[in-house]
Amino acid sequence: MIQYDAIIIGSGQAGTPLSKYLAKKGLKTLLIEKRWVGGTCVNDGCTPTKTMVASAKTAWLINRSEEMGITTARTNVHMEAVIARQQEIVHKMRSGSEKGLKQTENLDLIYGEASFQGPKTVQIDLPDGTQQTVRAETIIINTGLEPHIPSISGLDQVAYLTNTSLLTLPTLPKQLLIVGSGYIGLEFGQMYQRFGSQVTLLERGPRILKKEDEDIAESLYSILKEEGVNIRLNTSLLSVEKSENGYMATVESEGQQSQIPFTHLLLASGRVPITKPLNLKTTGVHMDSKGYIPVDNSMQTNVPGIYALGDIKGGPAFTHVAYDDYRILTQVLFADQQLQGNHDILPYCMFTDPQLGRVGLNEQQAKEKGLNYKAVSLANTSVARAIETGDTRGMMKAIVDADTDLILGASMLGTEGGEVMSVVQMAMMGGLRWQQIAQSMLAHPTFSESLNNLFSQLED
Ligand SMILES: Cc1cc2nc3c(=O)[nH]c(=O)nc-3n(C[C@H](O)[C@H](O)[C@H](O)COP(=O)(O)OP(=O)(O)OC[C@H]3O[C@@H](n4cnc5c(N)ncnc54)[C@H](O)[C@@H]3O)c2cc1C
Ligand SMILES: NC(=O)c1ccc[n+]([C@@H]2O[C@H](COP(=O)([O-])OP(=O)(O)OC[C@H]3O[C@@H](n4cnc5c(N)ncnc54)[C@H](O)[C@@H]3O)[C@@H](O)[C@H]2O)c1
What does pTM read for this prediction? Predict the structure, then answer.
């Protein structure tokens, strides 16, 4: 049995940089990965989807080029080339990351599935069918999430897709049925509608984006409808079966059953923690009812020496949160500090087009918290940069504290909404009051310049 100082299970957005950091600090470190280095983000999350969103935007821009005074020949989408471009970028990032790990002194990378045999002992099931056992005083779990597969009658008869398998499908689905209208459903749904599929999104709730403000969700809903995405709200998928030309779905909406034909099915109804294979019962590490591993402010589980980072610990599931967990743990282990991620001003961005950049509180959260707030919004039809660049869809919205004038949060639904949101995030981090943004000189004509107009409405 090989003894290490630290073992990291899962090469995700926290585990990968952490393994290099620990090894550089002189700890004999082992990183165990069952699939691909880089985890979800690099391989079947952020990188491939945003690469394909860019291809889909190109198709969309070409299709409306006449509005900008340019005519082109008919648009042809070559799915094989779109997928090849995406895979090339993914492989480049993955192999760059793998090379960096392999070149790090004091660091071993072993491909295989890890499971605990005790609080300090881990077994690795290697790809050749053999096992290896390793030990360490410090063990970090960074195993992430996987797609939730809902129990739907007839699903075993359908070669359904997930966010992983759709990324290597070389053909364009004719009729793509998507279960779930969360980030994954919306990003893929719009992307494939733009590539030329007829997309139907099923959402069992009464609206898309239930965690976002209703006016923001409504604005994005209209944008997607306008592009031809068929969104069925209050609708649950009951069963699927083979039909003459593909498949048939039976759905229920407000007590009524109806049928939807489809050629491909994407399951995007949420993601679940990968904890089962870890055999945590041998460690005494607690899981919650959904299988997430709760941690304290120092990222430690209830068992001393076992830590959990990234999506597996529950809470917001984003790459930058996992990376922040890595930063926090390095402070805890080497600077003896108990830092806490500042999730009050948590930023995130959904990469539909237009993007939805979000930071801090939205109006419904401010209401739920009973805060004394003011909300202000600006349609992008009033944003000079949006008019000039030919895309006035969406809106800007901000929430401020009515007592302190500090900015509580923003929702930026618009072209480069993520970038404009980041400007507001910096203002929040710096403790600026809304008047300072309303009266500051911002470069003309940028999207961010319209923050002047957004916040100056509060002067009335
Ligand atoms: C389609 C999609 C798009 C996304 N887009 C964005 C985005 O634009 N922006 C954003 O911020 N976030 C995005 N996310 C979320 C983001 O990918 C995750 O939040 C992030 O990857 C979480 O990182 P992590 O470190 O927790 O784990 P992961 O990146 O999920 O890595 C976990 C790793 O652990 C490995 N593993 C699991 N069990 C074992 C085991 N027993 N033994 C060994 N290895 C194991 C897995 O194979 C995996 O490589 C997206 C997610 C998806 C699915
Ligand atoms: N741009 C980004 O940052 C980005 C992009 C993609 C994913 N992600 C991360 O991945 C996580 C998972 O995304 P997701 O979209 O899979 O999950 P989600 O939980 O965000 O959304 C799932 C949706 O499916 C609906 N649903 C669930 N079961 C259903 C059913 N049987 N029939 C109809 N609707 C059903 C839910 O009501 C919900 O609206 C996100 O929370 C996010 O953190 C981030």
Answer: 0.97
